[in-house]
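Following up on my earlier thread - several people asked me to post the actual chain instead of describing it. Fair enough. Here it is, all 135 residues.
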Amino acid sequence: MAHGRRVERVASLIRREMSDLLVHGVRDERVSMGMVSITNVLVAGDLQHCKVSVSIFGSEEDQTQAMAGLRSAAPYLRGELGRRLNMRRTPELVFHHDKGLAKGVEVLGLLGQLEQERQERGPIPEGSSDIDEEL
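Reply from S.P.:
Thanks for posting it. Predicted structure:
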């Protein structure tokens, strides 16, 4: 049980430091252009690997470039994490593009569009709904 809490604590520390490093430490324009935010950090039980899920706001090209920049910056980021967290062995960083946020924004946009169309059509006249007939 204590081992699981340790892994969660390391993941939390990595997330905090990675967020700071993405804002203040990485000078690669590909990363800063895409507005990268960390959505999740999973650390393996043996602390050898770390999967960093990121959401990237921007065009498809910006997102592709940002992922390339993150992969390129991984050795630097790993070194900085090791130094900041004073870890004997810093996990290998693997970046994963989390598209969940973008899909959520897309769904919200569609819902907004449906609401706008409903507003344009006006209210549904009484008695025109099949549900009213069943009641």
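The longest strand covers residues 36-43. That should answer part of your original question.
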